[in-house]
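Researcher: Let's do a round of design. I'm pasting the structure tokens now; please hold your answer until I've finished.
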């Protein structure tokens, strides 16, 4: 399932892009409604790019249909991202710790000025390979991802205000 999302920030694009490349931001974001606090596994600078690896763990409720296919205790993944601060872009992929044969997600963020701050444009593709319920799970996951990314906005703005 291909999807596009937009989220708005009251800060300029370079500052928002730098915040997302900062290890400190993720410690401040804490837990989401369905996610445990993220764990930064790695941050390194490579020739003008920042590479981050961050582990997430799902802790929300799943429907019985989804639980029939997936064990909630095994829903962990690593967000591998490459941040180009000069271009204000991020390329990412989510790598499942379990179920890697059934789940893929990759995409990009672009931080663009909109006159009053920044718009983060997300373009990605998420695929769940599960007979009969794959498309339903994709819709739920995209909705959850959108909610999670929207919740980050306040955390990023608070980080930048400090």
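Researcher: That's everything. Go ahead.
Model: Designed sequence:
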């Amino acid at each position: 399932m291909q999807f596009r999302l937009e989220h708005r920030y009251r800060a300029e694009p370079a500052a928002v892009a730098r915040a997302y490349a900062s290890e400190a931001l993720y410690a401040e974001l804490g837990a989401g409604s369905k996610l445990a606090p993220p764990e930064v596994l790695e941050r390194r600078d490579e020739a003008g790019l920042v590479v981050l690896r961050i582990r997430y763990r799902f802790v929300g409720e799943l429907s019985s249909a989804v639980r029939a296919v997936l064990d909630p205790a095994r829903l962990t993944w690593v967000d591998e991202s490459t941040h180009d601060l000069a271009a204000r872009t991020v390329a990412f992929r989510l790598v499942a710790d379990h179920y890697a044969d059934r789940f893929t997600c990759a995409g990009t963020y672009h931080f663009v000025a909109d006159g009053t701050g920044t718009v983060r444009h997300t373009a990605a593709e998420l695929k769940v390979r599960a007979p009969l319920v794959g498309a339903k799970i994709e819709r739920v996951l995209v909705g959850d991802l959108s909610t999670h990314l929207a919740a980050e906005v306040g955390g990023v703005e608070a980080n930048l205000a400090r």
